[in-house]
């Protein structure tokens, strides 16, 4: 949930204010937008204001998609400006509720790790692995940070490799191995008084982070609009003029896959899919003072959803479910 723009290019306070205003315009995306605003406030140094945003989300009467994530981020933030006891209590609460989403586990474990609570961090990562990776030889991409974080902490503790560490090594595809990346000597060298050692380690880190930084600076994906079957039925029923654009749901799905493959073949990078809903589309049409039957509005709507962080990368990760929502693996569905 951290901002994906290099710090030197952003006025974090202004960006947080912009995201808060956007959240007011798009309440259905308020959770995502306010979390990004809170992250910018943390980077600006205004951690109390970030905590206020986390509390605002947790007090929301509308409910949250991922309350465990909000609590984890709040705990991490609180600890950074002196509220250790409260942060520990929240972290223990997150562990007790055992969320099925990997992100809260990673955040609380890394909070413990950053404050030299390595044993507690290792236990937290291991709890997450037991819960989210039972006998999994091909874990979902979202769980990879659990394995990588666990590998890092165990390396710092000098613990021997186990099956999950071996799995983390297998999943890690960067040129630098996890064992080298997580070598405690590399961490210690960053605190060295020897300028040569420090400069050498900084150069290595810059080289390793280059690809990551490039990925973070990528533009929003080129997004194609996807209507689930119930939404498309409602859309065409409400606006029959759009039936020419969408003759049937099966044709709609085939058109999406075909369009994305053509874009990929032409060399277009960062492709994605956004899922539309009729109420959201109608609200967007109203904001643009354009009738929903105007087909030129559809790509604009898709671009707007992508700019609000609603795009899912295409093609799906290996072994992941198809983007169409049928419940089958992509390779056996539209990826066949």
Q: Could you please describe the fold and organization of this structure?
A:
With 336 residues, the chain is mainly alpha-helical. Helix 4 (67-80) packs antiparallel against helix 5. The relative contact order is 0.07. It has helices at 12-25, 30-44, 47-58, 67-80, 84-97, 102-114, 118-132, 144-157, 163-171, 178-181, 184-189, 195-216, 229-238, 249-265, 278-287, 297-307, and strands spanning 222-226, 271-275, 312-313. The chain has a domain at 222-332. The chain is built from 16 helices and 3 strands.
List the helices and strands and how they pair.
Elements: H1 12-25, H2 30-44, H3 47-58, H4 67-80, H5 84-97, H6 102-114, H7 118-132, H8 144-157, H9 163-171, H10 178-181, H11 184-189, H12 195-216, E1 222-226, H13 229-238, H14 249-265, E2 271-275, H15 278-287, H16 297-307, E3 312-313
Parallel strand pairs: 1-2
Antiparallel strand pairs: 2-3
Helix pairs in contact: 1-2, 2-3, 3-4, 4-5, 4-6, 6-7, 6-8, 7-8, 8-9
């Amino acid at each position: 949930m951290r901002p994906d723009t290099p710090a030197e290019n952003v006025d974090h306070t202004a960006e947080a204010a912009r995201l808060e205003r956007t959240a007011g315009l798009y309440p259905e995306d308020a959770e995502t937008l306010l979390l990004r605003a809170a992250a910018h406030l943390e980077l600006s140094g205004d951690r109390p204001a970030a905590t206020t945003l986390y509390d605002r989300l947790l007090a929301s009467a509308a409910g949250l998609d991922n309350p465990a994530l909000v609590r984890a981020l709040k705990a991490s933030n609180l600890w950074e400006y002196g509220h250790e006891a409260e942060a520990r209590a929240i972290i223990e609460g997150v562990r007790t509720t055992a969320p099925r989403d990997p992100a809260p586990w990673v955040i609380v474990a890394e909070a413990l790790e950053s404050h030299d609570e390595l044993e507690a961090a290792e236990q937290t990562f291991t709890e997450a692995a037991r819960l989210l990776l039972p006998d999994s030889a091909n874990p979902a991409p979202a769980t990879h940070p659990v394995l990588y974080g666990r590998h890092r902490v165990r390396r710092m503790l000098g613990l021997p490799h186990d099956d999950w560490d071996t799995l983390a090594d297998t999943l890690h595809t960067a040129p630098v191995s996890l064992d080298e990346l997580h070598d405690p000597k590399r961490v210690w060298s960053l605190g060295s008084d020897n300028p040569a050692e420090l400069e050498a380690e900084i150069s290595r880190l810059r080289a390793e982070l280059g690809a990551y930084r490039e990925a973070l600076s990528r533009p929003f994906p080129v997004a194609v609009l996807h209507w689930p079957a119930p939404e498309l039925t409602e859309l065409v029923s409400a606006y029959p003029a759009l039936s020419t654009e969408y003759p049937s749901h099966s044709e709609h799905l085939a058109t999406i896959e075909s369009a994305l493959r053509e874009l990929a073949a032409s060399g277009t990078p960062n492709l994605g899919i956004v899922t539309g809903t009729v109420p959201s589309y109608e609200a967007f049409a109203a904001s643009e003072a354009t009738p929903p039957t105007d087909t030129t509005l559809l790509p604009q709507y898709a671009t707007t959803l992508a700019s609000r962080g609603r795009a899912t990368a295409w093609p799906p990760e290996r072994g992941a479910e198809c983007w169409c929502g049928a419940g089958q693996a992509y390779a056996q569905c539209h990826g066949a």
